[in-house]
Design goal:
Blueprint: H1 3-8, E1 32-36, E2 39-42, E3 47-50, H2 65-75, H3 86-98, E4 104-108, H4 111-126, E5 130-134, H5 151-155, H6 166-169, E6 172-175, H7 180-190, E7 194-199, H8 215-225, E8 229-233, H9 245-250, E9 256-259, E10 270-274, H10 276-279, H11 298-311, H12 316-337, E11 343-347, E12 350-354, H13 364-368, H14 372-384, E13 387-388, E14 397-398, H15 405-420
Parallel strand pairs: 3-13, 5-6, 5-7, 7-8, 8-9
Antiparallel strand pairs: 1-2, 2-3, 4-10, 9-10, 11-12, 12-14
Helix pairs in contact: 2-11, 3-11, 7-8, 12-15
Bound molecules: pyridoxal-5'-phosphate and ligand LHPZP3FS.
Length: 422
């Protein structure tokens, strides 16, 4: 019996998160035994150069010695106390230093919790119910946000999930990412009802789509004019596209920021934070309730802090951007040589690959027009060549500091072979 068949006897679909299941690319998911640096080692005995990086957290590569050491040290002191610890203060301080828009920050255990709590806080603060999100953006799986969502929901063809009460979904207004005029019109029509706008400042759950010039600026201006809360969901982009996240890169200050992935260095951590005035509405300071038995878990805080300290090294992100450039240039040349219509987006350590001749891809409808069948063939050809990409045409890829120039060159060599046979 295969490991996947065995898993499927006890776990729905054999996986604990749907996008892992290889449903759209076909075949059975790899079972991973261990990982080190830029490589994952599968139970079938093969090793792969990994561009999933646990969906973003592993910016230092897998099993980075500094992170593993502090995790081992902290674990020996006890796994969880359900009471304050100094290590959570230090991580909170570091987050506030790296992202100056964050004056107070609350730790949670996942990105989903972070965005769900930020939405509740924005509604509680403004006394309004409607929220604006963008089609193809994914903000975790809380009910209000699983409407026209990206990531696994899009991959599996259920962007608006059954089980979300229609009365609740009616409060979620979904607009087209990068369509400035549409957002302006929506605010003109109902600005006084909108509690918040939540946006991935670089969309990473419909492949990788950066904002067009003026899009984030327009969101900032409209939220200011209508007293709505602007939430940057930086679960994916935070600490990745720049040390201070997309808000540093584009020079825009959101009112609230949600974080996940890198902030836990591979352990389950999320966070939401922002303007003091808004964050003071959270219990116990204010009436908006939010809590968590394992929130601020000391082992997870230690992993997160060690990760943020390591990536604070001078020119860390410049080096990451250089590696990603090398990868993207190599892949683009390989596709051109093989005459395969191919387009790319990348921002520092995250990237997107599109099987289309449209360049650049900037809108959800353009993402949806790409050749998914060709992506699926490319995915399997790369797997055969020893390169592990996200098993979906709608996910961003991630480069880590462990991807050195030689590994990138090996990846490009693999792609030359893959492009020639898709
Ligand atoms: C932008 C964004 N927001 C929120 C989430 C939800 O995070 P988590 O999977 O940790 O719940 C994700 C990833 O899943 C994400 O990419
Ligand atoms: N795209 C998702 C997060 O960014 C993938 C992670 C998951 O849902 O399992």
């Amino acid at each position: 019996m295969s490991l996947f068949t065995d898993a499927s006897r006890y776990i729905p679909g054999g996986v604990n998160s749907p996008v892992r299941a290889f449903r759209s690319v076909g075949g059975e998911p790899l079972f991973i035994e261990r990982a080190s640096g830029a490589h994952i080692f599968a139970a079938d005995g093969r090793q792969y150069i990994d561009y999933v990086g646990s969906w973003g957290p592993m910016i230092l590569g897998h099993a980075h010695p500094d992170v593993i050491r502090v995790v081992q040290e902290r674990a020996a002191l006890g796994l969880s106390f359900g009471a304050p610890t100094q290590i959570e203060t230090r991580l909170a301080q570091k987050v506030c230093e790296l992202m100056p828009s964050i004056e107070l920050v609350r730790m949670v255990s996942s990105g989903t919790e972070a965005t769900m709590s930020a939405i509740r806080l924005a509604r509680g603060f403004t006394g309004r119910s409607k929220i604006v999100k963008f089609e193809g953006c994914y903000h975790g799986h809380s009910d209000s946000l699983l409407v026209k969502a990206g990531s696994g929901a899009l991959t599996l063809g259920v962007p608006t999930s059954p089980g979300v009460p229609p009365e609740l979904a009616a409060h979620t207004i979904t607009l087209a990412y990068n369509d400035i005029a549409q957002v302006q019109q929506t605010f003109t029509d109902m600005g006084r009802e909108i509690a918040c706008v939540i946006v991935e400042p670089i969309a990473g759950n419909m492949n990788c789509v950066p904002p067009v010039p003026g899009f984030l600026e327009a969101l900032r201006a409209l939220c200011d004019r209508h007293d709505s809360v602007l939430i940057f969901d930086e679960v994916m982009t935070g600490f990745r596209v720049a040390l201070g996240g997309a808000q540093q890169l584009y020079g825009i200050k959101p009112d609230l920021t949600t974080l996940g992935k890198i902030i836990g260095g591979g352990m389950p951590v999320g966070a939401f934070g922002g303007k003091r005035e808004i964050m003071q509405q959270i219990a116990p300071l204010g009436p908006v309730y939010q809590a968590g038995t394992l929130s601020g878990n000391p082992v997870a805080m230690a992993a997160g802090l060690a990760t943020l300290e390591a990536i604070s090294a001078p020119s860390f992100h410049a080096a990451l951007a250089e590696r990603t450039n090398q990868l993207i240039e190599g892949l683009s040349l390989a596709a051109r040589t093989a005459n395969v219509p191919f387009s790319t987006n990348h921002v520092c350590g995250m990237f997107g690959l599109f099987f289309t001749d449209k360049a650049p891809v900037r809108y959800f409808r353009e993402v949806m027009a790409c050749n998914v069948e060709r992506f699926n063939r490319f995915f399997h050809a790369m797997l055969d060549e020893g390169v592990y990409l996200a098993p979906s045409a709608y996910e961003a890829g991630f480069v880590s500091s462990a991807h050195d120039a030689n590994l990138i060159e090996s990846t490009v060599k693999a792609a030359r072979a893959a492009f020639s046979r898709i």
